[in-house]
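Hey L., structure's done. Input below.
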Amino acid sequence: MPSVLFVLTSVDKTLTGAQTGWYLPEAAHAYYTISQQATVDFAAPKGANPPVDEGSVKDYANDEESVRFLNDPVVKEKLAKTKKISEVNVTEYDALYYVGGHGPVIDLPVDPDNINLIGQYWDAGKIVSAVCHGPAALVNAVDSTGKSIFAGRTATGFSDEEEVMVNKVKDIPFLLEERVKQLGANYSKAPEPWRPKVVVDGKLITGQNPASARPIAEAILKALAAKE
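Output:
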């Protein structure tokens, strides 16, 4: 059975001091899709019990899978045993999946262990995937030649338009769409904000927003099946 590592933020405050963390449905929807056909573990820079974005808990209080995820004893144990990124080995997993939230824009792009992890998985030909703000974790990752993993590839992620709509531009160090374009990617997004959008470009798989969590999970499973 293939294995997927969900990578989460360890940050619980934005640049303005607002509460943040990893975004609940982007973990929950992907988890219940992927875990049917693959094993799932969690990792974060600081390890155990990474903080959830409390706003996402409120916003998805009526979402069945999100509520289930928060109360699932298996998930609770996995979150309590979240690995430090520094402890993860390149041979352990077949794919990386970066969960969004505003937290990942703050700690993961500049975390040296995370940058190293992505480079190792990328050079090993493994799947590197991310949803919503998750692609922010990849912006400083390079391949063995020192080139950005976004250079010359098509990708998506939380759009500048969506960032303005949630009024969070001041809370994060950079805008994801703008940065991905600067790195040489062909940025692609859904025709309207908040619609699902997933882009598969070889081993790089990206999703635009919370609505893209289930579709990106399906794309990850499809890519894993193609490798078997």
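The first strand starts at residue 3 and ends at 7. The chain has a mean pLDDT of 98.

-- N.
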